[in-house]
Amino acid sequence: MMEEILSPADCAKCEFCCSFRRQSLNLTPYFAAENVDEICRLYPEARFKTLPGGAVTIDLDDKYQTDDSEEEALCPFNHTGCILPDNLKPFDCKLWPFRLMRGENGLLLALVPTCPWIKKDDPGKLKEVAMTMAKEAARYAKIHPELIIDYRADYQIILEVGAAEGEPLHG
User: Fold this and answer.
1) How many CA atoms lie within 13 A of 21 on its CB side?
2) What pTM did the predictor assign?
3) CB 128 within 8 A of CB 159
4) pLDDT for 9-60, tens place per residue?
5) Which residues contact 153 (CB under 8 A, 6 or more apart)?
6) Which end of the chain is more exposed for a tag (fewer CB within 10 A), N or C?
7) Annotated domain spans of the chain
């Protein structure tokens, strides 16, 4: 279903979602803490850091060559596509180009504003795709509340999600 709003061919040639500017390191994907040991076993070169609040993310500090805030560093798990097994892949990556966020009234599925390939011309289709992810997103948020970021105004809200049941709050 995601293919209806984002072409796999466009994704494969872009890698935008897998590269991070020094100035936007707060947007690196968060990993479930219980997966980090297994990832490190599979990929001994993997480096992580724990952020205030308990979220775990990739450590890209040594990937930058300059002090330029616009410089980008590629995710170490991107080798012409993600090499992580699906069960270890961050939920943030599974949801792309959506982001699960905490709003004033509950959970939100919001559209990442920076994806250059997303088909934004059909809001109904965006909402339809988001609805297919609502239950899993609510379940994930309940297990990993520390990995849900607060809503940011530059993201377009596509769907408000009921935190407990994963159903749209209103449609």
Assistant:
1) 8
2) 0.85
3) no
4) 887 778 788 889 887 767 899 999 999 999 999 999 999 999 888 899 999 9
5) none
6) C
7) 2-161
